[in-house]
Amino acid sequence: MIGFNVAPFTGKEFDYIREAIEAEHICGDGMFTKRCNSWIEKRTGTAKALLTTSCTHATEMAALLLDIRPGDEVIMPSYTFVSTADAFVLRGAVPVFVDIRPDTMNMDETLIEAAITDRTKAIVPVHYAGVSCEMDPILDLAKKYHLAVVEDAAQGVCAFYKGRALGTMGDYGCFSFHETKNFSMGEGGALLIRDPEHVEEAEVLREKGTNRSKFFRGQVDKYTWVNHGSSYLPSDMNAAYLWAQLEVADAITADRMKSWNFYYEQLTSMQEQGYIELPVIPKGCEHNAHMFYLKTKDLMERSALIDWLKEREVQTVFHYVPLHTAPAGERFGRFVGEDRYTTRESERLLRLPMYYGLKEEHAAYVVERIKEFYKG
After folding, report:
1. Exposed (0-12), middle (13-18) or buried (19+): which is 146, by Cβ within 10 Å?
2. In which residue ranges of the chain is CATH 3.90.1150.10 found?
3. pLDDT over 90 (residue 217)
4. What pLDDT shows up at residue 64?
5. In which element (H, E) is residue 266 found?
6. Helices 236-246 & 31-44, crossing angle to 10 degrees?
7. What is the DSSP letter of 324?
8. 249-375: which CATH topology?
9. Which of 78, 120, 264, 303 is positioned for an S-S bond with 324, CB 3.0–4.6 A?
10. Which range is least confidently modeled, 18-27, 163-172, 184-193, 225-234?
11. In the 8-state DSSP scheme, what is residue 186?
């Protein structure tokens, strides 16, 4: 069976985890956590990066730092993972869903302004498949209406928009290092903070409401409880696992790009013949080969293709069920405007096997089976 995903592994993970254990500091903010934070800051240019226990928790931190309160509204796409909405629903806010663009599956930036009300507090663009939303008009709207921007860049590590790293353009950015992502620590994430004046508040929030970070920097002689907070620190052993990949991030990205380009080149003829549609990468967007998907004619055809490939030892999967159609989405949020593309495009999308170390002969086998399905 050619699986859909294999968690990234470089071979140094065990060595670094052992090193963390031998350092006798396996809780949060050890030497590997600091290395990872520093790497993110240098590679993205963000003022501060803080590893978290998940991208979900990074987004929850952003909601807390923005003082999201009951009744506030937050604009986002419906085509996203539940965590995008949950982080704000937990604060009593209302997720306001808008339709997506059919080319990138990202939130349609031209529909955001119509969804803004006097209760709107933030816009949450989700960079699907590591392909950036059109951030310039989104940031212009945020400035015009005095709104915060929280980038859900869970899939966007090492991806860029007009030369700017995803996750660094909004007030806060959120990365994921889940086992399905380009770089993994099993479960984990990171909060990117654009403005230095928000760093200390974020550190306190992440450290259970204490000024422990200042204590370890020698800025106070003892640490104490200074504000509300929780525990968003991952174990340094998790960070050690992640560091083994971040230090060879360019090689991992290049390997994934090779597979992505192979799929695209080999399936282009199928698109030209009208059988399928392939991903679109807009001008100015530099993606990270997080995902390779194709689009079938409709839901029935997609289901048939999934079954066909499964019978031939290839695992493929669809993706999100639009949040506004889910029970919790109906209860907590609302959809503004017409659902022209969100549901329709979500029912057509099929993700192919994509991971670090995918063998070209396996990718070729996947392509040939897809061609057989349509030619047959």
Report:
1. exposed
2. 249-375
3. no
4. 98
5. helix 249-272
6. 40
7. G
8. Aspartate Aminotransferase, domain 1 (3.90.1150)
9. 78
10. 18-27
11. S
